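Work Package 4 report. The design task specified in the project plan requires that, given a folded chain encoded as structure tokens, an amino acid be chosen for each position. We show below one input record used in the internal validation round.
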């Protein structure tokens, strides 16, 4: 199968591209390196030293003999998005290429607008490109469990059967997202569903939970293939952050009471779920939704698990409860269905003690690269404008980023692509 992985320089995309290539698919990656730019902008870096794309692809070719094609560009540019669809002619378009950090989208107006434009316009461009040039290609879109929020009822997979005033229908499950980023995913879902309906496109929305881990069999083959491991307050997801914190003796940063419960999955299951979706395409006109996670945990449960695993490795791990910088329920009901991928053959890697050990060991291996000033949350949902990291702090973290925030180039907010009101100050 010909699979194009959009966003293949990123955390989930890189591991997925390698996995699909090993499994015999012809793989192309498309990316504009925006994410590396956002790291520079914030003065953060992944715990693991990821390599430039040409080096990554050379190493893969040398080790496996497989070639992964690379297409450099921004999918919010329709010329680029449509050229990917025309030139590579994919059977499946796997779409990871979005701004995916909730805190990034909550920094200020620029970042909220940028996130929604990047994500919504990018996805719209792909829909038009598919309609125009390859209507039978299957769009496999990464959505998020956060589209649903935390309702006080069970969460279904995409749709809910409702009886209202004596009439019945099956409708999209209600969405109550918790950030401007999560909202962008809801907007995407609506646009994709509509395009399937009017143009007969086929799409699968993978409502993914929070991903943890960094190693897959493929990225572990050689240091040059190493994957991202973000631990900073903006891009780091919670379990990876806790492991990095434990590795350097920083108290685990539980926000509020820690009862926030989410679906989680190992990155090895991310890559397999994407493969399962590709191998079992949606029907023409079908907008299919899978909830892509394997287990539910509260934040406090995760912190306690990391504490216990850390103690076995002679790490002294404290848990601290910080005021929650986000506006979210700190204690709530959560029960989300996630059976469709299991029915199609997913065999989950569950979060065991040995897995936590290996996560902690990776964090320990790279702990000299940890900048503890990146742990504490600085983006508060209640503010319309949050302070950015001063340049000095960025330099102390080893970032080469020079430009002031407002002047950040092509793929960063405030670049002139969207201009309203106070942009011109
Ligand atoms: P990431 O930031 O590591 O990777 C995203 C990649 O997309 C980056 O390489 C970036 O440069 C690229 N990109 C962004 N905008 C682009 C554009 N306009 N044109 C071309 N390339 C662009 O993110 P990730 O963690 O790998 O997440 C991938 C997807 O999975 C996202 O859509 C995210 O919403 C979803 N997701 C991630 C998680 C998680 O825990 N990481 C959980 C649920 C869903
Ligand atoms: N949290 C803490 N302490 C921390 C970091 C986070 O208590 O140090 C809490 C958050 O408040 C939240 C939960 O942990 O309640 C999860 O936060 P997260 O940063 O790990 O994940 P989130 O912001 O939800 O975003 C991540 C990905 C995003 C994806 C989403 C899936 O960055 O791309 O869409 O997970 S989901 O959570 O299902 O929406």
């Amino acid at each position: 199968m010909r699979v194009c992985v959009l966003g293949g320089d990123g955390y989930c995309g890189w591991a997925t591209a390698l996995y699909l290539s090993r499994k015999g698919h012809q793989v192309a990656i498309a990316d504009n390196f925006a994410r590396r730019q956002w790291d520079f902008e914030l003065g953060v870096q992944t715990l693991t030293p990821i390599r430039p794309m040409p080096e990554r692809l050379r190493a893969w070719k040398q080790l496996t003999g497989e070639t992964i094609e690379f297409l450099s560009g921004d999918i919010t540019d329709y010329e680029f998005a449509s050229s990917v669809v025309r030139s590579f002619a994919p059977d499946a378009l796997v779409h990871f290429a979005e701004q995916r950090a909730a805190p990034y989208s909550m920094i200020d107006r620029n970042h909220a607008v940028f996130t929604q434009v990047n994500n919504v316009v990018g996805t719209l461009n792909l829909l038009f490109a598919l309609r125009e040039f390859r209507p039978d290609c299957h769009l496999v879109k990464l959505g998020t469990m956060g589209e649903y929020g935390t309702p006080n009822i069970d969460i279904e997979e995409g749709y809910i059967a409702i009886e209202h005033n004596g009439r019945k229908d099956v409708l999209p499950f209600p969405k109550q997202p918790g950030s401007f980023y999560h909202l962008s995913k809801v907007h995407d879902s609506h646009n994709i569903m509509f395009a399937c309906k009017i143009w007969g496109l086929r799409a699968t929305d993978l409502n993914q939970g929070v991903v943890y881990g960094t190693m897959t069999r493929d990225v572990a083959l050689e240091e040059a293939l190493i994957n991202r491991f973000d631990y900073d307050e903006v891009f780091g997801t919670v379990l990876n952050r806790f492991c990095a914190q434990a590795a350097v003796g920083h108290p685990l940063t539980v926000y509020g009471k820690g009862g926030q419960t989410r679906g989680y999955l190992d990155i090895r299951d991310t890559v397999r779920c994407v493969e399962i979706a590709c191998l079992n395409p949606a029907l023409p006109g079908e907008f299919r939704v899978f909830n892509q996670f394997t287990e539910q945990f509260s934040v406090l449960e995760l912190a306690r698990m990391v504490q216990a695993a850390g103690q076995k490795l002679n790490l002294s791990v404290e848990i601290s409860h910080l005021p929650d910088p986000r506006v979210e329920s700190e204690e709530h009901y959560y029960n989300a269905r996630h059976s469709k991928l299991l029915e199609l053959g997913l065999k989950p890697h569950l979060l065991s003690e040995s897995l936590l050990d290996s996560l902690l060991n990776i964090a320990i291996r790279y702990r000299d690269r940890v900048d503890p000033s990146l742990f504490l949350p600085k983006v508060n949902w209640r503010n319309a404008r949050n302070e950015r990291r001063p340049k000095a702090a960025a330099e102390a973290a080893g970032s080469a980023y020079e430009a002031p925030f407002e002047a950040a180039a092509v793929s960063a907010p405030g670049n002139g692509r969207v201009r309203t009101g106070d942009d011109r100050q």
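The chain has one domain: 2-418. Validation will be extended to a larger panel in the next phase.
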